[in-house]
Amino acid sequence: MKGKxxxxxxxTVLIFLPLAPFSKENPKLAKKYQKWLKxxxxxxxxxxxxxxxxxxxxxxxxxxxxKEFWRQRDPTPGTPRNExxxxxxxxxxxxxxxxxxxxxFKGWRTDRGRFYIKLGRPxxxxxxxxxxxxxxxxxxxxxxxxxxxxSFFRLLFFQRYGAGEFELYNQFxxxxxxxxxxxxxxxRGVDENLDPDARxxxxxxxxxxxxxADASMSAFPGQKGQGWRLDSQVLLGEVETIPxxxxxxxxxxxFLEHKAVVEVSYSVHYIGxxxxxxxxxxxxxxxxxxxxxxxxxxxxxxxKDKYFTNLKTSVRVTxxxxxxxxxxxxxxxxxxxxxxxxxxxxxxxHLYDSFPxxxxxxTLNLLWENMVTKEFTSVEKKISIxxxxxxxxxxxxxxxxVSRDLPKSQxxxxxxxxxxxxxxxxxxxxxxxxxxxxxxQIYGLNHNLKQAGILEFSFSQxxxxxxxIFRNISEYNSDRDFLEEIPxxxxxxxxxxxxxxxxxxxxxxxxxxxxxxxxxxxPVPGSWVVAQTSPPAxxxxxxxxxxIQYLNKGELQKAQMELADAYARKPDxxxxxxxxxxxxxxxxxxxxxxxxxxxxxxxxxxxxxLFYSLGNASQEIGEFGEAxxxxxxxLNLKGNITLILNAMGECYLQLGNREQALQAWxxxxxxxxxxxxxxxxxxxxxxxx
Length: 689
Fold this sequence. Notes:
- This protein is an alpha+beta fold.
């Protein structure tokens, strides 16, 4: 038997992203999308969802969005049925049968139909068919304090002038006078100096019922008066938006952001997350971005006794100019036995990973996908990598646990420094009997601070200092990495702030960093940590990655130095050689490009980048026949590419072979007919020869 098993993780995160102003409705929408938007979900779709849907340009994205729209409202996502969707369409069907009579509209378009679809069946209904009033219905509902400021409220519908559609009554703008039939003929014994609403209220109380009179003044049973009329109007506004308040529409923004990377068959399920991102410098001076990602849920498929999924993380770092500086992907297969799954059910899934990054100011985008269950979540965060050796303090890392004596290994993982492994608290929550492990780094300490500097650890609550600890810099085994264990037994459960300051021998503060944390009375659930490993610190992989980052930033000299180092230490790695050759092509060292890459051709490697780079280098140094040969091998691997066909045309022309040149350019135009420069080139050659 095959099905899905859901591991619940109790975490919440709010993602705030700007939205553009609402777009006009797209008149080119197919009928099914117009019906869905303007009829089927018109009363329950949020403004954010509507805006996102209006921005979708292809039907594939619209279909995926509609599926996700209903999934976000499914009360039992682990089952085949979507009870919310079934109930919603049952309400529409009932509204069309019940409330469209006597009107030119379908029932879902009437006021009663609208509120029936939004709120469902009332607790009970009072009907008035008294000759002294127009036909009236009062619907009573129990309120939910999450959505409306009333434990019980009522909606009054009436036939204005005694005929037509039942309209929603507004205590503030309509008033009792609109409910009474023939008010001028019912004034006997009523003070004629009273305004029409006051006179009508007396008639309702005297001729019909106190309950109706009460409802004409307030949507809150038992409360009436001028103030309650205004409060009733506010309540109506709250009631109108109850369906929109029941859904967290952050997923819609995430869908719009990531729809381009979703496979055509991918039914996208956005889930929330918690995360932590910290920058840690290793002994070589290289900075690493360390992150932990905790998705709200981790769903796995199961077959017989095995539970499995495949996770994928995609990281992209862009600079302030929007250039991609670093990007990478990781695949994480997960397979569990039933007994392992039972142990992990009560734990949250923590994914640890890290990567090196050169100095600069960036935006980090992290996409996490469950490839089996089609769920995804994402993170966006601004990060800044310091440059140089100036005095600087890192952000604080608060952890519930550390391992100080890891076995020696050639590999490392996130939040690891040598034999020290830190397990940060993602949400900075600690059990009252825990110890708090506080880690930070200080870069660029001079001799005086190393000898006489002091770290001050200050704990406060609501700006009141409760505990202060002083430690001499010289007490630590490192002049960069600082770890302090602080028992929490002296602090009561609550919310706190910890501040760490670097002081000189005079007590003057150089830098300070703060972090908020909470202490609770119940033990914090355990974590299921999956840590991705990285190569040892001296591996040429890091020179390769750093070189690529400098190349993407346009810092060619630094890129050349790093990539030359990576290639020198691993000359048989094609990726390293091609990246080094890419810099050399920009620097116009074409002969060196050939020296580096020809051995891979001799080793019979087939790679598009290899042949294209060799063709480019050969063309630049005037070896046109050789360039054509390399270009042709590149085309054999990738098919017709305009850039290469145009380059081949230039080479043929340099060799005096005009027919072959024209043939290459004509193929280029077949691939991309919008090349005016190539068209003019062909015309000029034909005219000249």
